[in-house]
Amino acid sequence: MTALLAAAGTACGPELTTPSSTNISGTWTSSDTASGVTDFVLVLSQASDGALTGSWSGRGIGPNGSCHPELGCAPANDIIGSNTVFQVYVDLRGLGAFTGQIESDAYFRGHLAGAALAFNRAAVVQGARLTRIAR
Hints:
The chain has one helix spanning about 1-10, and strands at about 25-30, 35-45, 50-60, 75-85, 90, 95-105, 105-110, 115-120. The chain is mainly β. It has an eight-stranded antiparallel barrel with strand order 1-2-3-4-5-6-7-8.
């Protein structure tokens, strides 16, 4: 009986630390708000072991439409994390930890500091030419 239980326990699925089969490298956006930041942009690079690196940026919002009092108007920083079969974990340096689930190859959602966030893969425009505009 013990051997049967042990075999059943090992046949349930992959280890929870196994990298997800969905690679989330690329640019992701969210218009949701968490910790006084909105209009998130994540630029992620995923290694074969599921490790994530990259950067985040957003628009800091404070009272009366002003900038965030501590983060400023355009907060940004580095990202580290992991994408496993269990969850997406992203440490947005200077802001907090996001944990969530992949819903499709173009959408993942979860929570950051108790706020719900949903990220969509940014559309890639083929053949687009970008021009910097001086202010």
